[in-house]
Amino acid sequence: MQQKKWTCSGVAKDGQQHPNQNHQGSHQPYENYGHDCVICNLTQEQVVGGGSKSSGKVIAIPIIVGIIAALGFGFRTLVSSSLPITSSPKTSSPKTSLPSPSPSVSVSPPQEARSQCSTDQLVKKSGNLFGAIEVGSKGVKAKVIQELATPNEDGTKLILFRKEKIDDRNVTAVEPSSQSATVEAVKSTYQDIQKRFNIPCEQIVIYGSSGLAEKAPHKEVLVQEIQQATGRAMNFITPEEEGSLVFDGVVPAWRLNEVILVDIGSGNTKGAFLDSDDKHISFSIPFGTTTFTNEVKENQGKIDFKGAAENVKHKKLLPQIVSEVQRKPGMQTLPRVYLAGGISWALFTLTRPCSREYNVVRKREERFDSFAPISSEDINTFYYNATQDQKTLFNPDLSNCSTERREEVQKEIAQIKKDIFSEDNLIAGAEILRAFNEELGFSKKEIFFVRSGKDALPIGYLKQRLKNIKEDAG
């Protein structure tokens, strides 16, 4: 149950400074919902009893602010005067920076949003938790990420904070008709992160997926309204950046020169590998499970969806893959393939549900530990069942599953069938898998579904933003 809010002004009830207090002296009264103060880290027990001395200030500030706002004076000036002054990050080179919203869509947040944050950019204010909100073509999802004081066994300082799960908000963000619902989903997710995890707003980042950026005709308005609702700047990432960030998040260091990542999303397919100079080589195909479904329907005519999907694959999908391979031959020569994305998860769940995902432990170079073997033949079976035998598709053999895994798989199958993919989506996704199977020669490679791919992007994105902060400070 969520705790009742309590106010801290940086003054302990015993009047002393405490070892856990990282903001020396008093600060502007702040309403907290958890056990520790977001500003200074004093606990509720250390403060309660002494906070009443500031109660007059807590009441007076909103009244004074309301009067000033009514008179038309600068509300931001009053509030920001007691907050840290930060400069906006400088523009870095394309190799190390992520794009910022274009000036044409930058807006001033409303008074309510401005009163919460000292800036709309990422700033390390207090604590070691960060929030990352992703606005994708088919919904809004978020992760809370913890920054460790020193690198852990896998060599990284950023890990998922697994204390509580944040529910995904299922909205079709790519459709203009869902604009209001998308903004509300982002706002509620943002508020949820603040209240449940006591994360300062300055430590919450919002970004749009590459698929949404490519397909949403209203993306500039979406940026405006999300910033108005939250006070936070929203950035879009390119497919190339997305592929590289996910690659860095899922590929072990000792496999870096052996692997090509193929991440099939709802809006596009992207991926990356390293060349002989250890430089990221990214690729992007403007078809994902949803967008390819829509493309097939637009060109379907009077034939069934299966036939239309195969036609569109040969006319539009394969030529784009071939073009990328011709310019980036490493896509075909590397011995390992890591598959990520929703349709890859469906492939594994419906063809290899009891296959053991093996873990690599106590290797400093290993970032994520869950790898599930997939074969070229599994892709062909998945396609056949999706197009010819739906009954078999959704009733895979679970006899070799443990009781726990069987229950988990049954829930995942229900999600795939009822909540995530339509029948046409599964056929379209299977065609994308078949196309890469053919052109990259999966039959001669080791293929793995990487479950942790779904968590790699927010960690990679936050890592890049924090890196930019350090470079700017330098």
Summarize the structure in words.
The chain has 17 helices and 13 strands. The strands form three sheets. A six-stranded mixed β-sheet has the order 10-9-8-11-13-12, sandwiched between helices. A five-stranded mixed β-sheet has the order 5-4-3-6-7, with helices on both faces. Strands 1-2 form a two-stranded antiparallel sheet. Helix 8 packs across helix 17 and helix 9 crosses helix 10. The protein starts with 5 loop residues before the first strand and ends with a helix. About 16% of the residues have low confidence.
Key attributes of the depicted protein:
single chain, 474 residues, alpha/beta, five-stranded mixed sheet, elongated
> What is the SS-derived class?
alpha/beta
Low-confidence stretches: 50-115, 360-369
The beta-strand count equals 13
**Order of strands in the sheet with the most strands?**
10-9-8-11-13-12
Order of helices and strands: EEHHHHEEEHEHHEHEEEHHHEHEHHHHEH
Overall mean pLDDT stands at 80
Helix content: 40-55%
Report, as a whole number of angstroms, the end-to-end distance: 43 Å
List the total number of helices: 17
Rg computed from alpha carbons, rounded to a whole number of angstroms: 25 Å
Molecular shape: elongated
User: Sheet with the most strands?
Assistant: 6 strands, mixed
Indicate the multimeric state: single chain
The percent range for strand residues is 5-15%
